[in-house]
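Write out the bound-state structure for LLZGTKA7.
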Amino acid sequence: MGATEFYADNRHAWLACGTFARYSADWGDYISFAERMRKKADKEGRDLLLIDTGDRIEGNGLYDASDPKGKYTYDIFKEQDIDVICTGNHELYQSDASTREYTQTVPNFKGKYLASNLDYIDPQTGDQIPMAQRYRKFTTKNQGIRILAFGFLFDFTGNANNTKVQPVENTIKEKWFQEAIREDVDLFVVIGHVTLEGPEYKALFKAIRSQKWDTPIQFFGGHSHIRDFVKYDSKAYGVQAGRYMETIGWMSIDGIQGKGKNKDRKDHETRASLSFNRRYIDNNLFGYHYHTGLNETTFPTEHGKNVSSLIQTSRKALNLDHSYGCAPKDLWLNRAPYPSNDSLLTWLETEVIPVIAISPDRKDVPTLAITNSGAMRFDIFKGAFTIDTTYIISPFVSKFLFLKDVPYKSAKALLPLLNSGGPVFEAAESKAQHLAPPEQISIHSDIIATSLPSKPFFDPLSPQHTFLSSNSDEPDLIPGYTTKDAGGTDGDDTLHSQISFYRVPNCIQSAISMPEDEDPEVVDLVFVDFIQPWVLTALQFTGEMYNKSDVKVYREETLTDLMAAWIKENWQHDC
Ligand SMILES: O=c1ccn([C@@H]2O[C@H](COP(=O)(O)O)[C@@H](O)[C@H]2O)c(=O)[nH]1
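---
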């Protein structure tokens, strides 16, 4: 009896090498890996399917540094042969990105791209049309497993006005969905840019089970950037493959006997004893060589090598390795507590924002400047700070806006309100958790690492691979993911020592040009445009009834450009 296997990824345009050796394979390597593993699966009579759960864009120079954005990336993405693919929230923040998704990615993955709860607004006619087909029904080639697949996005409300995200609860009531879940299939596959524990998947699970009490369901999640595995019932599981092309999530279902090749099989025979297994593979060549049984010479396929060289020529064309300056030390987004000397947010709040959140014509006006912590997406490592690093840290096109002459007593109440994330935001449908790094949706308390890092050495013979120091009996591990999920602690393909994770506030605030001896009557309230809905809602709570038309542009440059300028000015020296 063969297994049905899946590989899933979440990448944010990290198509070139990751920042660490442990996550350093590129998109071309992943293509070689998939091609090699598919061949192996074919030989052994198994089926191997590739899944992509969205957020392919923003967060890496390869996408963000070109004009138009994504000039090189769409042609690189499309080279992977993905079986089921859907949209993430990042594809929808900017209308030009949604248009590229509709006109390029959807056709590039024709028949595989699913948009179960997403519509596109045709710019010519104004018609609201499905972004892509709602579901896909297909039979796997080796085992004849009849699959019905959906592709969802969580109930996202921050999209530009050329798309429409339908809440999952409403989609479930639609005729096409109700008909689809009544189809006679061997397996439902629900992929989505949706957290595994969120209300959307709970509702979908309930809906499918209301019609099919026994059909296996495999969910693939995304959005919250973590490795995760969840059990919904004995025949329904979900897996999520981390973030930024660091992890290839592997999921295997053993025991489904597809009716596609034998129509006379009875239902109870097709799903007699099932087992669901997951593994989180670090995205590096060591792991790829180990799993394919190949080596440096035999592993890469021609196709994979061509894609790797396309990535390198694109990176060169964009000058992504050009250095703006030299970071004097590591600055961590979640690996150091906030506030602290090693916190990236403390650095931003105390050193950068007080310099960049100043408008030349209002520079002496007392100012409170607020930025959301989610505007920062990664750590800064000691050493060269390049064009690429800039977009890895902060890919957004957000600008500083401001409200003039806000009573100080109300302005100073804002930060605690934004950070407490209380009922004031639930009512306004702008959950305050969307202000912080997405990991915090799933990680509810600090994780403080107990072990210390040491030097790397890879042991490919270990069942759960380790990075070992060469002359020690005890595994001397380097830091990386140490996942605990519904399957226990054996999901990580490579053993690592634990990394700390400190929760950070939703927003940080810098007080600028404040009088020394007394509080000001009024201040300029400066904030990044992304947080405007939360700022206006919280201000109303303090009794200040501002609306959108009161908000003015404070600086024309983006936060990202201003931050890069600060680095050029302050970290000038060579590394
Ligand atoms: O303009 C923006 C857009 C988004 N953010 C932050 O990013 C997360 C979403 O990140 P995912 O990678 O999709 O999970 C959002 O919650 C915001 O915190 C932003 O700051 N500015």
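---
The pocket of LLZGTKA7 is lined by residues 55, 89-90, 93, 223, 225, 372, 374-375, 396, 398, 434-436, 438, 530 (CB under 6 Å).
Residues 453-463 have pLDDT under 50 and may be disordered.
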